Amino acid sequence: EAERVFLSFVFKRGLHKLTFPITQIRDRINRISRIVPDNTGTLDKYQFAIEEIYPIEAELVFSQLSFLPWVIEKRIRNSVRLIESGILQDLGFRVPNPNDCIFTKFLVSHSDFRFSKFVRTHLECNGIETEQSYTPLSMREFNKVSRLVSTPNTDTFWKGAFCIPVNPLLSTEDIDRIVAILKSVKSQKFSK
Fold first, then answer.
1. 167 to 106, 116, 149, 170, 182: CA distances (angstroms)
2. What predicted TM-score, i.e. pTM, was given to this entire model?
3. Start-to-end CA span in the chain (Å)
4. Which fold has domain 70-185?
5. What span, in angstroms and rounded, lies between the C-alpha atoms of 175 and 77?
6. I want to staple 116 with a disulfide (CB 3.0 to 4.6 A). Which of 1, 160, 165, 176 is the partner?
7. Is residue 116 a contact partner of residue 110, using CB atoms and an 8 Å limit?
8. Residue 68 and residue 71: Cα distance in Å, rounded?
9. How many Cβ atoms sit within 10 Å of the Cβ of residue 68?
10. Element (H, E) at 117
C-alpha cells in the first residue's frame, strides 16, 4: 500500500521524468517497514530511501513529498464533508470511503444511469467539473470488484458512475457549493 501511494504521488507530480530510476526507489521502499502515509516519520523514511539513491536530486523529490500530508488531509476533509452532508445518499447515490479518495477519484454511482447523467449535467451547468468513469477492460475480464464501491463492474454500473472533485485546492466553501447545487436537484423534475 505504501509503495502504491508513493508511486502514485511520484507520477502525479511528474517526478518520474527525473534521471533516477523509479524502480530503485520502489525496491528500496520494499526493504523499509510498511508505511502508512499519515504515520509519524513517513517522510523521514521516504527521504532516507531517496537520499541513498541519488543525493543530488533527493532535495527536489523531498520538497514534493513534503506536501503529501497536506494533500491527504485536504482530500479526506473534502470527501468527508461531501459525504456527511448526506445529499448524495438522499439522491440514491452510492459513495466511496473517504480514505479511498487520497489519490483516486471521488467516485459516485447510481442504479439509474439516466438520473446519474441528469445530476452530472446539472453539476456541469453550474460550473462543477466532473469526470466520467469507465471499467478498465482488465477488470471486466477478471470479473473483479471495484475497490471504491462494493458493486460488480458491470456496464450498467459504470454508466451511472462519475467522479466529483475533492482535490486539496478546494476549500470547505467550494464543497458546500457542490452540496448546495446537489440539493437544488431535489427541486428539479426528472422525467424518465
1. 9, 21, 19, 6, 18
2. 0.58
3. 42
4. Aspartate Aminotransferase, domain 1 (3.90.1150)
5. 10
6. 160
7. yes
8. 5
9. 19
10. helix 113-125
CB 76, CB 101: distance < 8 Å: yes
Q: Give the model confidence (pLDDT) of 7-59 as tens digits.
A: 565 655 555 455 445 555 555 555 543 443 444 455 555 555 555 555 445 55
Sign of the alpha-carbon torsion through 174, 63, 131, 1: negative
Q: Where are the domains of the chain?
A: 2-66, 70-185
Q: What is the pLDDT of residue 68?
A: 67
Residue whose C-alpha cell is 521502499? 29
Grid cell of 162 as nine digits: 462519475
Q: How far is CA 135 from CA 26, 111, 160, 167, in A?
A: 27, 15, 12, 22
The answer to whether the beta carbons of residues 63 and 76 sit under 8 Å apart is no
For residue 92, the number of C-alpha atoms closer than 13 Å in the C-beta half-sphere is 11
Largest CA distance in the chain: 62
